[in-house]
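Box 3.1 A note on notation
Throughout this textbook, protein chains are presented in two layers. The first layer is the amino acid sequence; the second is a token string describing backbone geometry. Keep the layers aligned when reading.
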Amino acid sequence: MTELLDGTKIQKWDSKNSKINVLSDFSKYDCVANNGTKNTPALCADLFGDWREEVIYRTKDNKHLRIFSSAIPTDRRLYSLMHNPKYRLSIVWQNVGYNQPAYVDYYLGDKMSNPPNPNIKIVKFK
């Protein structure tokens, strides 16, 4: 199951014990969420291109942005999620008011097969 991003916390539902476990709380780094009741980070997206998402928060004094990324090693190598059209559009709608999680247009999870390679073309304009 995917993690839950709520305010400055990343949480995971534990169905065995019927409770939510907090995996990370970024408020301890002086971070705050945005948008009042929406309680969202500045951005959550695959910024560094390893298919795992990073989260960006602002500090309480609005002087800094802090980027948090996973330090957990992975042997899974996928192309950047930003190369996936649905995911890229999802990141856009997150930032224009419809803050729902970003998804790709293929299954991304345990026991997955490799996704199809993106059809990326470089176009040079004259």
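The chain has one helix and seven strands. Strands lie at 4-6, 9-14, 19-25, 31-32, 43-45, 54-59, 65-68.
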